[in-house]
Amino acid sequence: MLCRRKGRTPRRPKKPSNIEKDPVGVYCRIRPLGGEDEECCVEMISSSTIQLHAPDGLKANRNGEYKETQYCFKKVFGIKTTQIELFEDVAKTLIEDLIHCKNGLLFTYGVTGSGKTYTMTGSPGEGGLLPRSLDMLFNSIGPFQAKRFVFKPDEKNGIEVQNQLDALLERQKRDSQLSVPKTPSSRQRVDPEFADMINPDQACKFEGVDEDCCYSVFVSYIEIYNNYIYDLLEDAPFDPIRPKPPQSKILREDQNHNMYVAGCTEVEVKSTEEAFEVFWKGQKKRRIANTELNRESSRSHSVFTVKLAQAPLDADGDHILQDKSQVNVSQLCLVDLAGSERTNRTRAEGSRLREAGNINQSLMTLRTCMEVLRENQMCGTNRMVPYRDSKVTHLFKNYFDGEGKVRMVVCVNPKAEDYEETLLVMRFAEMTQEVEVARPVDRPICGLTPGRRQRNQAFKDELSRRLEERGGPVNGDPVQLNQLIESLPPLPPCELSDPSDDQTLPRLMEVLERRYRIRQKMTEQFNQTANNMKFTLQQFESQFSSKENVLHDQRSKLGEKDKVITNQRTEIERLEKKSKTLEYKIDILQKTTEMYEQDKRSLQQELESREQRLQKELAERRRMEQRMQGVVTDTKLKWERECERRVNAKQLELQNKLWVKDEKLKQLKAIVTENGGASGGPTEPPRKPERPSRERDRNVAQKSSASPTPLSTVPPVHPMHRRSHSAGGEKWVDHKPASNLDLDTVMQPIIPNAIKVSTPNEKALSKCHRYVLRHQELASDGEIETKLIKGNVFKTRGGGQAVEFTDIETLKQEGPTAPSRKRRSGSGEGPAQADDIENRVSANKCLSLLIFVQ
Ligand code: ADP
Ligand code: MG
C-alpha cells in the first residue's frame, strides 16, 4: 500500500515586508453519496485531512497499483455537517470583517454536482452561506440602517452620501415612477421558493457593530459565462416581438485601482427578505437565459456581491455626517464557480463545446494565477500574474494584489466516477492554501464621541414623553380614528324601491343631519383642540426661543469663559516656564550651598584640629615651663652649694697656706731663737709642719659656714670593701629619675650590664659595684644639660650600701644658633663640636658624695 502524505514545500525567505499576510483559507466539504451502493473514494481521516482512494476500476487499469493520497485543509467538513456549522466556521468572520470595513471573497470550487450551489445557496430550510450571511448582516446592522437613498452609488464603484431631504425627494420620485407597492420592510413571505431558508433559531448576530454609524447594503448579482459578464439584476425592457440577447458588461478600474463591473445594477436592500428577493430575481433571470440561450448552467460563474456602506453620525447623533471622505465601503463577494471538470464529461457539442472550453479556460487561468502568485511569494520572483486572461481572475485581482480575506470551500463528491477530477481539485486546493493575501488593516475611527446615537434617542424619547404629558398628540392613531367613525350613527338602508316610499329619505336625512351635527361638534372640538395645540405650540415656541436665547447667552458666556481659560492657560504656561527656570536656579543655588557647606565643614574640622593642636602645644609648653622652673631652682641650689663648697675649699687652702707660712715663720723664729738662745735653755726639736686634718677642716668649715655640706662628710665605709672587678665586667646601677626628659641626641650613653632604676634601692645596689645618676638641669645658656654622676658602691659596716661619687660626666645638647656656641667657636676656647657636645669635667676625687642606703 502506498500512502503518500504530501508535504508542503518549505518556504523560502521572503523579502522583508511589514505587511501582515494570511494564507487563503481553504476548507473542504464532502457531500453524501447519491446512492448507498455507490463506490466511495474519499474518506475523512481527521478534522483537517482527507484521504483519496483510487476506485476499483482505476486500480485494474493501472496494473493493480493501489494508491492513496492525503490532503490537508484548514478544516474538513464531513457528510453530516449542517449548513449552520459550515457557516459559523467559514463565513461568520467574513461578515464581522465586512461590518469592520474589510473586504472578503468566498468561493466554492469543485466538479459539477459536488455541492457548490448547495453550499453557497442551499435549499429551503437548509439555507447556504449566502442567505445566512445576509441574515447575519441585517440582524447586526438592522436598527442602524440609513434611510433609503441616503447612500447613493456614484457609478464609479464609489458611494456618496446625501442629506435626508434629498433622499426623501428621491424616494418620492421613485415611488411615483413605480406603480408596484413598496418593498416590504418586515419579515414576510415573499416567494415560497426561498421561504424558510433559515430557521429563526439559527439566526446569527454580530454584537460589535458601531452604533454611532449608519449603514446601507447594496447588492449586485452577475454571471460570467463564456468569459462575458452579464448583469442579472438589470431591468431591461422586454420586447416580446424581438427579444434582445442580454448585453455583456465590461470591467473597469476605479480610482483606488479596484476592479468593478461598469454599469452594473446595485440594489439598495433593507432586509434579508428584500435581499433574498433580489437574489432570486437574478436566479430566475439566469435560469431563463440559460433555457432560452440553451446554456449549460453548471458552466457559468455567479458572483453575488454584498456592498456595505457606512458613515458616522454627526456630533448630535441625529444625522449622518455629510462628508464623502468619511464614507467607508466594504464588500463581500460570494462566488459559485462553474464546475471544474473537463469538457468531455458533459458531452457538449458544437458551440456549447467552445463555450465550455472558455469556461474551463477561466478556471485554468485561476489555477495559473494561483501558481504564479505562490511562486512569486515563496521564491521572491516577480512573474506577472495573468489576471487579465479571464474575467473571473481580473475581477478578483485586487483581493490577491491588494488586501482582503479570501476563503474557498472545496466541494467533493466522493463517488468513484469523479475520482480523477477530484484529484485535480485537491491539487489545486492544496496549492491555493499556500498563497498569501495581505491582511486588511483597520480603518481609522472618525474621532467623534461615542454613544451619540443613544444620547439622541434618549433625547427624542424624553421629548415625546413631555409632549404626551402636556396632552398633545404623540402619533395619529388609525385605530382611534376607526373607532370614531364607527361611533357615528350607521346609515340606514337607502335603497328606494317604491316611488311612494316616504320613509327612507326622511330617515336618511335624519341620520345625515345627526351625523352632520356630530361632525360639527367634532369640528368644534377639533378646532378647540387645534387652538389648544396651537397655543401649546406657541408656548412651546416661545419657551423654545427663550431657551434658545438662554442657550445663546450661555454660549456667548461659554465663549468668554473659553477666552478666559485660554488666557489663563497661556498665563499658566508662562508661570510654569518661570517656575521651571526658578526651580533650575534653586537647584543651582542648592548645589552651591551644599558646596559651601562642605567647605565650611572641612574648614571647621581643620580649625578644631588646629585648636586641639594649639591646646596640646600650650599644655606642653606649660609643662615644659614648669619643668624648666624646677630645673632652674635645682641648678640654682646646686650652684649655691657649689659656691659654698668652693669657698670652703678656698678657705681651707688659704688656711693651709697660712699654716705653711706660719710653720715657716715658726721654723724661722726657731732658727732665730736657736741661734740667739744657744746659751739659754734646751733646744726644742724642730716640729714637722702638720697638715690640718680633715676633721679640723670640717670644724673650720663648720665654723665658717652654718650649713654643713654633705660633700665634706667622710663616708663611714670600709674602704677595703670594694667589690671585685675581675669577676666579669663592672655591673652598673643606672639611676634615671622619672622626671628626666628623653633627649633626641644621636649619641646616647650606653651602659652595658646595667640595672635601670628610677629610684635607687638596696637590692639593685647590692648586685652592682658601680652607680650612675642621670641628672638633668638647665645650663646657663638655657640648654638642658645631662650629667652622669658616677660612683662606686660599697658595703657599709652596718650591712647597707654606700656610694662614693667619683666622677661627673656632662652631656650637653645645643642649638646651632645658640649664641653661646657661636661665641665659643669664635673665641677658640675649644674645638667646635656638632650637635652633641660631650663635655667631660674631670672632677676626679674632688667629689666625695655618698649615698647611704639602709
Ligand atoms: P453543484 O452546484 O456543485 O453542481 P449542487 O449543489 O447543485 O452541485 O448539488 C447537487 C445535488 O446534491 C443537489 O441536489 C443537492 O441538494 C445535493 N447536495 C449537494 N451537497 C449536499 C450535502 N452536503 N448534503 C445533502 N445534499 C447535497
Ligand atoms: Mg451549481
Automatic annotation (TrEMBL):
Where is the major localization of this protein?
A: cytoplasm
Entry similarity comment: Belongs to the TRAFAC class myosin-kinesin ATPase superfamily. Kinesin family.
Alphabetized UniProt keyword annotations: ATP-binding, Coiled coil, Cytoplasm, Cytoskeleton, Microtubule, Motor protein, Nucleotide-binding
Q: Which InterPro entries match?
A: Kif23_Arf-bd, Kif23_Arf-bd_sf, Kinesin-like_fam, Kinesin_motor_CS, Kinesin_motor_dom, Kinesin_motor_dom_sf, P-loop_NTPase
The name under which this protein is listed is Kinesin-like protein
Region feature (Disordered) = 1-20, 672-736, 811-837
Kindly give the PROSITE patterns that the UniProt entry links to this protein. KINESIN_MOTOR_1 (PS00411), KINESIN_MOTOR_2 (PS50067)
Q: Where is the composition biased (Polar residues)?
A: 701-712
